[in-house]
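Hello,

Following up on my earlier ticket. Below are the two sequence lines again, exactly as submitted.
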Amino acid sequence: EAQVTQNPRYLITVTGKKLTVTCSQNMNHEYMSWYRQDPGLGLRQIYYSMNVEVTDKGDVPEGYKVSRKEKRNFPLILESPSPNQTSLYFCASKGLAHEQYFGPGTRLTVT
Amino acid sequence: KQEVTQIPAALSVPEGENLVLNCSFTDSAIYNLQWFRQDPGKGLTSLLLIQSSQREQTSGRLNASLDKSSGRSTLYIAASQPGDSATYLCAVGRMDSNYQLIWGAGTKLIIKP
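Thanks for your patience. The regenerated structure is below:
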């Protein structure tokens, strides 16, 4: 089954404790991206990757890092999380027809 | 800067009615427009994708239209069912190589049995 997976689905952590949210897709897509969703603000792009070792900033990259060492994986790294990064995070990949496929989301709470 | 608006923010209709959800965007230079459905705890599901050269797309009881000149898209749902209750999001694809989607805030749809 074609899918995008994210882990963990839920995470509660404390300010400053480094964390990584993993994302993996099994569709051999070149393009992957990370979004955060906040009430009233819709989804906003954090980072995207056009291919292995090619990443770039989206609209809200501050406080986040990404890496793309393999085509299927695109982890999101929060080096020093802060409460304003409490949000719902989605990973997505894009197919040749430009249709985007989303993971189930990771709900992060930073206290 | 592209802005995407969805009005109303919430809509409640009786089961069986046909309904239309609206999406407007400020810049007509778009690559495509995509409608998604979001269910609590289940992420986002792509419903319909309309390329910039197309006027509409249909899938089952769903029909999405695109009018770039007026900056509008509509999602028509025929014969609504309680299972259609969800938040519906539209997203506009940028024209540059980024493929970034610019999102509306969504319309929360409730279908009353």
